[in-house]
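Project standup — Tuesday

K.O.: blocked on the structure for the chain from last sprint. Re-posting the sequence here as requested.
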Amino acid sequence: MQKAVRRSKQTETIYYKPVLALLRQPYVQMAAGKEATELKAEIEDKNLFQVPTELLHKGEFLTLLFSNCTTADGAIDYFSELAHLLENVIPPENKLDREFLFYYKKSVNLLRLNLEEMPMDLQVETVYKLLRQLVGSVRIPFEGEPLAGLQVMGMLETRLLDFDTVIIPSFNDDMLPRKQRNNSLIPYGIRKVFGLPTYEDSDAVFSYNFYRLLHRAKTVYLIYDSRNNKVKNSEISRFYNQLKYLYQVPMEERTVAFEIESRKKEPLSVPKQGEVREKLLQYLNLNSNKMLSASSINDYINCPLSFYFGRVLGLSEQDEMSEMMEANTFGSIFHEVMQDIYKPYKNEIITKVLLSEIIKNDYKIESCLMSAFAKHYFKRANEKIEMTGYSLLMARIIKKYVLKTLHFDKQRAPFTFLEGEQNILTQISLPNGQKVNVKVIIDRVDEKDGLVHIIDYKTGKVTKGLTFDDMAELFTASPQRPKEIMQTFLYSMIYTQQYKKEICPNVYSFKQLKDLPDISFSYQKEEILKYSTVAEEYERLLKSCLEKLFDKSVPFTQTEDVENCKYCPFIKICRR
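H.V.: unblocked you, prediction finished:
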């Protein structure tokens, strides 16, 4: 964590990952109390990828934990004080952790004594490395009541002790006998000539302890792992071969293996009864805040069970703090920038000259970008944000998309900008008499040559382009289903009901946007210039889909196409 500190002329910050890792540690939470919880929530809520050190200094423990060490003596004092505070936190019954902490403090004190004898000043980084090596070499012995229960001990601890039953795990050749490392600078040949200890003497001592342990035992269990891997030897210990072939000790051999079988996956379904039915009917209650949207209808078409988990039960993925920008955040920033650019010109004619001025106004576009990033990426609306590294790169990409859109709009000009991010709440009447609450947010509405254009921005991949041959494709579960068309048609349907105007549905797809793109849909190889030409067939299939959604005799079932499950957040629940 100390190495993650970043210093500049104005501020001192720490990278968020080691900070969150420490704040999630159980003993840190016990020592710091609610201060750790509040600090963690503040970092995650504000997406603080670089956390200012002054923000971390809350309470005695956190102030010490996140204090900056600048000298070698300061680093030793830091670890010593931290261990002392943790000693007061770890419960007495947690003997293992207290034992670990005892040996850690012992290592810190040993390092302190050695550094006091050194005439030179060490760098803080050197102290970290020395302490890490010292702690890594510590071996903590197990202790137990000698006259009761199971005794867990190493080979050296068994000297002069006899047991009726002995269990030796890890009876692999690289563990028994353990490989001996010769850390001496004196070569083996010289050690042999002058009678100095060699690895052969260590092996002999180890062999003696092993055979002495077995001398009076009545039952001995030797357990080894025969699995092959790159980390350890899968061969049984050489002591086994000595016992079996040299001393001909009678043995009973047994192979223990776990049979792994894939369980038969039973299809999951949830009947629309009881509480499930009551929650579903809230979408039909005019006074309820439950609304279907284009994305929720797409969820139901793709997988009814996914709709049940996400829209009926209200389950969702836990948000994890990440520097990588999610696709939905990318889209939200782009939508916000386009809305801020066009908002001052509501109900005005957008000309080529005006768009040229907007494109040249780099300060305005940058300001809109900064504002949108602060709101959607950094989650600190109305704050001045300094973008660096990854965020700056993503800002440049979004800016290119914005300029691309403006240049294309310049080719379409003149047109009248009517509304951006228009929010419409309404109800759709079904043939069976039910009325469904629906909410849509239309990215942009403009008018050109007496025709109202519903424009849906798509910053991600458009599944199947803008063409389709059968209206039923829009309501059939498939990874290649043109859901963007279904969504834009829904916007057109709702807008038509509200304003009684002729609509032309369009999609701005940035994976396909060129100088003169075809932004209109093509149905059976014919361009859709007016929504009214497909309205009757689309609305019949849409209402049939909604009737099925609210039909209590049709349960929520899993999709038959497993390709739809690839990126589903509920894949572990339904065991796909």
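K.O.: great, moving the ticket to review. The chain has a mean pLDDT of 87. The chain has three domains: 2-136, 156-246, 274-565.
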